[in-house]
Design a protein that fits this description.
By secondary structure, the protein is mainly β. It has one domain. The chain contains 1 helix and 11 strands; from the N terminus they run H-E-E-E-E-E-E-E-E-E-E-E. The protein is globular, with a radius of gyration of 21 Å.
Length: 163
Amino acid sequence: MSKPLKYSFVVCIVLLGFSCDEFCEESNRTAIVVNFYSHESGELTGLRALTITGIENDSVLYPNPLMSQSEFSQILLPVNPSADVMSFSIEYEEFPADTVIFRYMRTPGFVSSECGCVALAELLGDPERTENSIRNLVVVNAKAKTVSYRQRVINEENIRIYY
């Protein structure tokens, strides 16, 4: 292949890449942001030996093999866009698992032309829960936000769970 032909090929590839629609890089998932606190000190704390499983679909959310973390002070619980209730099993250390049930109202929201629409959610009342290892659960902000799962820490907070 001649040098001018190679150069033209590279320029075409680059221009083709810039002419395509942009990828969605905005926050386009709705999740309930849960932070863990120490019951004794009231301070944000990291938890090890934490397993969180979705009850309706038996999916293990934490620990996630794709994440390098083994200690969590914050978790994201994804909102189901086609249901008004979601349940999770939260198992911490040697205690029996706690079940937490969230009820919420969904409303459609538009993110952008690249990202499309999302189901926004607002918690309805306090979540139902068992009291095996969870000492207290407080709703700080009932409106769940759209988040990016690539962020390490989300500054929003919906729920505080005290251990």
